[in-house]
Automatic annotation (TrEMBL):
A Pfam match: BPD_transp_1
One GO term of the biological process aspect: transmembrane transport
Gene Ontology CC terms, in alphabetical order: plasma membrane
Domain (ABC transmembrane type-1): residue spans on this chain: 63-257
Keyword Transmembrane listed: yes
Family membership noted in the UniProt record: Belongs to the binding-protein-dependent transport system permease family.
Protein name from the UniProt record: Carbohydrate ABC transporter permease
UniProt subcellular location: Cell membrane
Transmembrane segments: 67-91, 98-120, 132-153, 174-193, 238-257
Length: 272
């Protein structure tokens, strides 16, 4: 009976989370008159919406920009955060706990607080209208990712690192040759988290990007909404088709990386 209740609960949660995506795909395959009829299956079936929106706007360019920015942001955040986390996990130095607490305290600052001064810095460098501000800030790491990866590094046996030091390994060798391979599940989780965050980010592209050729997908979807949505031509089927195209890569990414999410969650659970 308990197992049945568990499966029923999981089914309800699955339907609750899966229905919006199903509705999005279904509505994107309807004609203009039936977009909002809430039918689960499109009738009439209009797959031409995808071809039409693909011709109307440079989706391929926006996808390429999002991939480039997302990968750069994810790599920068993962490596920078891992380096800082490794330092806090392995080394003992005066004020370590205080400094780590200050790093975590930065999570209390809303992004809006630093938005203007950060923009002014990029403007002074002459890069305020490029894609560089969308990912280069991650070169300084992320407090949340530092905390997450520090937990993975702390779970590694310290004796292994001590033995490597005796054999002459320096700190960089310990980090690249031992810590990173052993903490791979955590690194994958951080990489996917940041890639998803960069893929769906709209605020920074709205601030920094001016030329349509530099738009990422979220910024491009805003342009699609302005043109085909409310206040435009009201071709909502095209807006939804573009939204489905933008959502599909994130879903595929999660399906590919889900085993690493599970492994990372299990590791954290065992640590507790």
């Amino acid at each position: 009976m308990k197992r049945i209740a568990t499966w029923l609960g999981l089914l309800v949660v699955t339907v609750a989370f899966g229905y919006p995506f199903w509705w999005l795909v279904s509505a994107s395959l309807k004609d203009r008159a039936h977009v909002f009829d809430n039918a689960l299956l499109p009738d009439p079936f209009s797959p031409g919406n995808y071809a039409e929106v693909w011709r109307a706007v440079p989706l391929l360019t926006w996808i390429g920009n999002s991939v480039a920015v997302g990968v750069a942001a994810a790599v920068a955040a993962t490596l920078a955060s891992a380096l800082v986390a490794f330092g806090f996990a392995l080394f003992r130095f005066p004020g370590r706990n205080l400094l780590f607490g200050l790093v975590l305290a930065t999570m209390m600052l809303p992004g809006a607080v630093t938005m203007v001064p950060v923009y002014l810095e990029w403007h002074a460098l002459g890069l305020a209208t490029t894609q560089i501000p969308l990912w280069a800030q991650n070169l300084f790491g992320s407090a949340f990712y530092v905390f997450l990866l520090r937990q993975f590094f702390l779970a590694l046996p310290r004796e292994v690192f001590d033995a490597a030091k005796v054999d002459g390994a320096n700190a960089w060798r310990l980090f690249t040759g031992m810590a990173l391979p052993l903490a791979r599940p955590g690194l994958v989780v951080v990489f996917v988290f940041e890639l998803k965050a960069a893929w769906t980010d709209l605020i920074k592209p709205l601030i920094y990007l001016r030329e349509p050729d530099l738009y990422t997908l979220p910024r491009g979807l805003q342009a699609v909404l302005d043109r085909f949505g409310k206040g435009g031509e009201e071709q909502w089927e095209l807006v939804l088709a573009a939204s489905a195209i933008a959502t599909a890569p994130v879903v595929l990414l999660f399906l590919v990386a889900q085993r690493h999410f599970v492994r990372g969650a299990v590791t954290q659970h065992v640590e507790r």
